[in-house]
Task: structure prediction
Amino acid sequence: MTNGTGFDVMTVECAGAPFSQAANDYACFKEMIGKFGVYVFQDKATNQVLYVGEAYKQDLKTRVIQNYTEKDTGGTFRKNFCDAESKSFQDFKTLLQGSSVKAMAIDTDSKVLIGAIEAILISALKPKYNK
Result:
């Protein structure tokens, strides 16, 4: 998973890049390939935490980019935003363009540990779009 140091923290400032560059260009998330843990979408202007998610079956890159397609059933952040706000996918794209993604890759095979860290972050940060 990681290089044996316990965890790696990554910040991706270009959360909106896949929409402003060539379609399906997820190069800005390449550092997340093959890593598992938790991720946080955050509004860059207000620092408000928008969503906290986990990645233990699929790597962080896969989990994060599931939110970038309108029909992907794994995009919980996207679904929660559109449902809660009665907004369109275009509105969600606008939200992402002003967001960053922070991810913590955790050197573990324990989905319980990753789930516990996600739950602690949700409890502490109270993200707007986690149910």
Q: What stands out?
A: The CA atoms of residues 20 and 97 lie 8 Å apart.
